[in-house]
Amino acid sequence: MAVETMSVEVAEASARGLVAIGAGLAVGMAGLATAIAQYGIGTAAVGATAENKDIFGLVLVLTVIPETIVIFGLVVALLLLF
To answer: In Å, what is the CA distance from 31 to each residue of 7, 34, 37, 57?
Structure first.
């Protein structure tokens, strides 16, 4: 039985494809984690703001903090691609 080997071009294309999948997973999973975090924080923030309107600024800052997770995922994806 003959053993077939991949050509260099096919191997490089396959490697680039796997890197692209990894970059997509980095951004996608970071976005999913951010959505889950913002769900919990947003729910609590609405309830806290309904009880005391003076804490709106603090609640807004706490709601935005999970967005940094997506930025980290984007940085990882860009490092993988370039």
So the answer is: 36, 5, 10, 24
CA distances to 27, 34, 51 from 42, rounded to whole Å, are 21, 11, 14
Q: pLDDT tens digits for 17-53? A: 999 999 999 999 999 999 999 999 999 999 999 999 9
- Return all residues near 15 (Cβ < 8 A) that are at least 6 apart: none
Amino acid symbol at 4? E
Quote the CA–CA distance of 35 and 33 in Å, as a whole number.
5
Buried b (16+ CB within 10 A) or exposed e, 38-49: beebeeebeeee
Radius of gyration over alpha carbons of the chain, in Å? 21
